[in-house]
Amino acid sequence: MESGALQPSLYTVKAIFILDNDGNRLLSKYYDPELYPSMKEQKNFEKNVFNKTHKTDNEITFLEGMTIVYKSSIDLFFYVVGSAQENELMLMAVLNCLFESLNQILRKNVERRSLLDNMDGVFLVVDEIVDGGVILESDPQQVVEKVNFKADDNPLSEQSVAQHITEKLALTTNVLQSAKEQIKWSILK
Protein backbone atom coordinates (compact mmCIF):
# COMPACT_ATOMS: atom_id res chain seq x y z
CA MET A 1 0.00 0.00 0.00
CA GLU A 2 1.34 3.36 -0.91
CA SER A 3 2.02 5.77 1.97
CA GLY A 4 0.13 8.65 0.29
CA ALA A 5 -3.08 6.61 -0.10
CA LEU A 6 -6.02 7.73 1.98
CA GLN A 7 -7.27 5.41 4.67
CA PRO A 8 -10.97 4.55 4.60
CA SER A 9 -12.99 6.63 7.02
CA LEU A 10 -16.52 6.73 8.35
CA TYR A 11 -16.34 10.53 8.29
CA THR A 12 -17.89 10.84 4.87
CA VAL A 13 -19.81 14.11 5.03
CA LYS A 14 -17.93 17.39 5.50
CA ALA A 15 -21.00 19.65 5.46
CA ILE A 16 -24.72 19.86 4.76
CA PHE A 17 -26.41 23.14 3.98
CA ILE A 18 -29.67 24.47 2.60
CA LEU A 19 -29.82 27.82 0.82
CA ASP A 20 -32.74 29.82 -0.50
CA ASN A 21 -33.01 30.90 -4.13
CA ASP A 22 -30.93 34.02 -3.37
CA GLY A 23 -28.08 31.97 -1.93
CA ASN A 24 -28.85 32.87 1.68
CA ARG A 25 -28.21 30.25 4.35
CA LEU A 26 -31.26 28.67 5.95
CA LEU A 27 -29.44 25.76 7.59
CA SER A 28 -25.85 24.61 7.70
CA LYS A 29 -23.90 21.97 9.56
CA TYR A 30 -20.16 21.67 9.12
CA TYR A 31 -18.68 18.44 10.45
CA ASP A 32 -14.99 19.11 9.79
CA PRO A 33 -13.82 21.99 12.02
CA GLU A 34 -10.67 22.44 9.95
CA LEU A 35 -12.53 22.78 6.65
CA TYR A 36 -13.97 26.27 7.12
CA PRO A 37 -13.38 27.26 10.75
CA SER A 38 -15.04 30.69 10.69
CA MET A 39 -18.58 31.72 9.83
CA LYS A 40 -17.21 34.12 7.21
CA GLU A 41 -15.29 31.32 5.45
CA GLN A 42 -18.36 29.08 5.55
CA LYS A 43 -20.60 31.75 4.04
CA ASN A 44 -18.01 32.53 1.33
CA PHE A 45 -17.83 28.84 0.46
CA GLU A 46 -21.63 28.60 0.34
CA LYS A 47 -21.84 31.67 -1.93
CA ASN A 48 -19.22 30.17 -4.27
CA VAL A 49 -21.09 26.87 -4.37
CA PHE A 50 -24.40 28.62 -4.99
CA ASN A 51 -22.96 30.80 -7.76
CA LYS A 52 -21.56 27.72 -9.49
CA THR A 53 -24.67 25.55 -9.14
CA HIS A 54 -27.86 27.62 -9.08
CA LYS A 55 -28.24 27.86 -12.87
CA THR A 56 -27.27 24.30 -13.76
CA ASP A 57 -29.22 21.07 -13.99
CA ASN A 58 -26.33 18.88 -12.85
CA GLU A 59 -26.36 17.01 -9.57
CA ILE A 60 -22.65 17.06 -8.79
CA THR A 61 -19.80 19.54 -8.89
CA PHE A 62 -16.24 19.86 -7.66
CA LEU A 63 -15.14 23.08 -6.00
CA GLU A 64 -12.23 24.01 -3.72
CA GLY A 65 -11.15 20.38 -3.48
CA MET A 66 -14.61 19.23 -2.41
CA THR A 67 -17.16 16.92 -3.99
CA ILE A 68 -20.58 18.54 -3.79
CA VAL A 69 -23.90 16.92 -4.64
CA TYR A 70 -26.98 19.09 -4.79
CA LYS A 71 -30.65 19.30 -5.61
CA SER A 72 -33.11 22.15 -5.92
CA SER A 73 -36.80 22.34 -5.09
CA ILE A 74 -38.97 25.36 -5.80
CA ASP A 75 -36.99 28.05 -3.92
CA LEU A 76 -34.49 25.86 -2.02
CA PHE A 77 -31.09 24.36 -2.78
CA PHE A 78 -29.87 21.33 -0.82
CA TYR A 79 -26.13 20.55 -0.66
CA VAL A 80 -24.07 17.69 0.73
CA VAL A 81 -20.29 18.16 0.74
CA GLY A 82 -17.57 15.52 0.94
CA SER A 83 -13.85 15.38 0.26
CA ALA A 84 -12.56 15.21 -3.33
CA GLN A 85 -11.98 11.44 -2.97
CA GLU A 86 -15.42 10.74 -1.52
CA ASN A 87 -17.81 8.38 -3.25
CA GLU A 88 -20.44 10.50 -4.98
CA LEU A 89 -23.04 7.75 -4.60
CA MET A 90 -22.67 7.84 -0.82
CA LEU A 91 -23.11 11.61 -0.79
CA MET A 92 -26.07 11.32 -3.15
CA ALA A 93 -27.69 8.76 -0.81
CA VAL A 94 -27.43 11.31 2.02
CA LEU A 95 -28.87 14.07 -0.19
CA ASN A 96 -31.77 11.92 -1.37
CA CYS A 97 -32.52 10.80 2.19
CA LEU A 98 -32.51 14.40 3.39
CA PHE A 99 -34.78 15.56 0.59
CA GLU A 100 -37.24 12.64 0.84
CA SER A 101 -37.42 12.87 4.63
CA LEU A 102 -38.19 16.58 4.44
CA ASN A 103 -40.67 15.90 1.66
CA GLN A 104 -42.60 13.60 4.01
CA ILE A 105 -42.34 15.86 7.04
CA LEU A 106 -43.35 18.97 5.10
CA ARG A 107 -46.18 17.05 3.44
CA LYS A 108 -44.74 17.38 -0.07
CA ASN A 109 -44.44 21.15 0.38
CA VAL A 110 -40.65 21.49 0.23
CA GLU A 111 -40.31 25.25 -0.06
CA ARG A 112 -38.73 28.06 1.95
CA ARG A 113 -41.72 29.14 4.04
CA SER A 114 -42.66 25.61 5.04
CA LEU A 115 -39.04 24.76 5.84
CA LEU A 116 -38.67 27.81 8.09
CA ASP A 117 -41.95 27.03 9.86
CA ASN A 118 -40.69 23.51 10.67
CA MET A 119 -37.03 24.23 11.34
CA ASP A 120 -36.94 22.17 14.55
CA GLY A 121 -37.96 19.09 12.58
CA VAL A 122 -35.46 19.90 9.83
CA PHE A 123 -32.59 19.94 12.35
CA LEU A 124 -33.79 16.63 13.79
CA VAL A 125 -33.83 15.09 10.32
CA VAL A 126 -30.28 16.26 9.57
CA ASP A 127 -29.09 14.93 12.93
CA GLU A 128 -30.70 11.54 12.29
CA ILE A 129 -29.01 11.22 8.89
CA VAL A 130 -25.50 12.42 9.77
CA ASP A 131 -23.74 12.69 13.11
CA GLY A 132 -20.31 14.29 13.22
CA GLY A 133 -19.79 13.53 9.53
CA VAL A 134 -20.71 9.84 9.88
CA ILE A 135 -23.72 8.65 7.88
CA LEU A 136 -26.19 7.07 10.31
CA GLU A 137 -29.20 6.50 8.08
CA SER A 138 -30.03 6.68 4.40
CA ASP A 139 -33.62 5.39 4.48
CA PRO A 140 -36.04 8.34 4.60
CA GLN A 141 -38.81 6.22 6.14
CA GLN A 142 -36.55 5.25 9.04
CA VAL A 143 -35.52 8.86 9.55
CA VAL A 144 -39.12 10.06 9.64
CA GLU A 145 -40.03 7.34 12.13
CA LYS A 146 -37.04 8.18 14.31
CA VAL A 147 -37.89 11.85 14.55
CA ASN A 148 -41.43 10.86 15.45
CA PHE A 149 -43.26 12.55 12.63
CA LYS A 150 -46.43 11.04 11.27
CA ALA A 151 -48.21 12.22 8.16
CA ASP A 152 -51.43 12.88 10.12
CA ASP A 153 -49.90 14.13 13.37
CA ASN A 154 -48.28 17.39 14.25
CA PRO A 155 -44.58 17.12 15.03
CA LEU A 156 -43.53 17.08 18.66
CA SER A 157 -41.57 20.30 18.64
CA GLU A 158 -39.45 21.94 21.29
CA GLN A 159 -42.14 24.55 21.67
CA SER A 160 -44.85 21.96 22.39
CA VAL A 161 -42.53 20.25 24.90
CA ALA A 162 -41.86 23.64 26.54
CA GLN A 163 -45.61 24.36 26.63
CA HIS A 164 -46.23 20.95 28.22
CA ILE A 165 -43.59 21.61 30.90
CA THR A 166 -44.97 25.11 31.52
CA GLU A 167 -48.49 23.71 31.95
CA LYS A 168 -47.22 21.06 34.39
CA LEU A 169 -45.34 23.70 36.38
CA ALA A 170 -48.42 25.92 36.51
CA LEU A 171 -50.54 22.97 37.68
CA THR A 172 -47.95 22.08 40.33
CA THR A 173 -47.81 25.71 41.48
CA ASN A 174 -51.62 25.80 41.77
CA VAL A 175 -51.65 22.56 43.79
CA LEU A 176 -48.94 23.88 46.11
CA GLN A 177 -50.76 27.20 46.53
CA SER A 178 -53.99 25.37 47.36
CA ALA A 179 -52.18 23.16 49.88
CA LYS A 180 -50.62 26.26 51.51
CA GLU A 181 -54.04 27.85 51.81
CA GLN A 182 -55.53 24.71 53.40
CA ILE A 183 -52.66 24.44 55.89
CA LYS A 184 -52.94 28.14 56.74
CA TRP A 185 -56.71 27.85 57.41
CA SER A 186 -56.31 24.68 59.41
CA ILE A 187 -53.68 26.37 61.62
CA LEU A 188 -55.82 29.51 62.10
CA LYS A 189 -58.87 27.51 63.24
From TrEMBL:
GO cellular component, one term: COPI vesicle coat
Residue ranges of domain AP complex mu/sigma subunit in the record: 12-150
GO biological process: intra-Golgi vesicle-mediated transport; intracellular protein transport; retrograde vesicle-mediated transport, Golgi to endoplasmic reticulum
Record membrane topology: Peripheral membrane protein
Transmembrane segments: none
Keyword hit for Transport: yes
InterPro entries per UniProt: AP_mu_sigma_su (IPR022775), Coatomer_zeta (IPR039652), Longin-like_dom_sf (IPR011012)
Intracellular or extracellular location(s): Cytoplasm; Golgi apparatus membrane; Cytoplasmic vesicle, COPI-coated vesicle membrane
Chief subcellular location: cytoplasm
This protein's UniProt keywords: Cytoplasm, Cytoplasmic vesicle, ER-Golgi transport, Golgi apparatus, Membrane, Protein transport, Transport
Family per record: Belongs to the adaptor complexes small subunit family.
Primary role: The coatomer is a cytosolic protein complex that binds to dilysine motifs and reversibly associates with Golgi non-clathrin-coated vesicles, which further mediate biosynthetic protein transport from the ER, via the Golgi up to the trans Golgi network. Coatomer complex is required for budding from Golgi membranes, and is essential for the retrograde Golgi-to-ER transport of dilysine-tagged proteins. The zeta subunit may be involved in regulating the coat assembly and, hence, the rate of biosynthetic protein transport due to its association-dissociation properties with the coatomer complex.
Subunit structure: Oligomeric complex that consists of at least the alpha, beta, beta', gamma, delta, epsilon and zeta subunits.
Protein name per its UniProtKB record: Coatomer subunit zeta
